[in-house]
Amino acid sequence: MNNSSPMVLVVDDHRLTAEITGMALEASGFQVVIEEDGPSALARLAADAGIRAVVSDLNMPGMDGLALLDAMRGQGSAQPFVLLTGQEETGPLSGHPGLDGVLAKDGAVEETLPPLLWRLLQGVARPAPAGAGVAQGTPGGLPGLDLEAGLQALGQDWGTLKSLLEAFREEYLTAAADLRGLRDSGAVQPCLAGLHTLKGAAGMLGATRLPSAIADLEQALRDQADGPQWDTFTASLREVLDGIAGI
Amino acid sequence: MAKVLVVDDSKMFRMLASAPLVNAGYDVLAVDPVSLFEVLKAMYAFSPDLVLTDYWMPNCNGETLVRVIREDPNFQNVKILVCSSHGEESLVEKMTQHHVNGYILKGGGMVNLLARTGQLIGPV
Fold this sequence. Notes:
heterodimer, A: alpha/beta, Rossmann fold, five-stranded parallel sheet, 10 helices, 51% helix, B: Rossmann fold
């Protein structure tokens, strides 16, 4: 992340939830600022022209998320606006004028929100991670993986990162087929547990597309509506595993 | 040297969490939470400064683990950092009620884990 990263304003009266949302965005390359109520968010928007998008909770005391959106549009702020909801149905809200996206605040939001914001901000180049390509012997980059974050965490120790990548590949080489087999045999809960474990490891390793592909598949399985999500998951996992095989 | 106990049922995650901590100079013990008893045995044997734990674990409920640690006077100074793939508001609130010291997402990666560890028990 650097100064060229787009800045996102996160608005939530629950500070810890805002920080969790902010962490997911920062991990995806955004800068984040937080406000805990609508009026403060409006003041921040008026004062800071660098804010490129707004993510707001729906239910907040005083001014709720939709009132914030209306007030924001009223004061001429045109940034993309994404609403996060609790248990409510998201469908009826999606037609609200000026609203660019509605996401349920569930376990998948940290995977689904960053790609949605990048799509809304198309044309804004994703910044290269700080210190890109500095470690000797590292590949220039691997598809579907943020190698530089791993190197940063490991003090630029490419040998250790390589070992972790290879261990990941060995552990999950047959995971797509194994998990599909579980699902096809009716063992949906074990399949979900396996996907969840893989999602955590992939996120920790710095996989970029795989965690959101798994989150989409998890949701589809819970809704008993899984289909093309399997292909996206399999392709995302294959992308990571094939990249590691080439190092 | 500050000590970190890593508790997660995923062997791969234990490796991924331990590597940056060891590299940074922390004394790290990673345990497979086959039972609450085994984790508590490790707590007494290792006397960690920080427990890094998952929440959803099949044989060791993370919420129970946190509550037991918080109720034990031997561990009153131990910091607890929950690292989960779940970011639901209700879960974060529940963990906050148990006085955990931090809650991070696995999707934040190793950099975030290292940074939060340093905030809680200091860099090595």
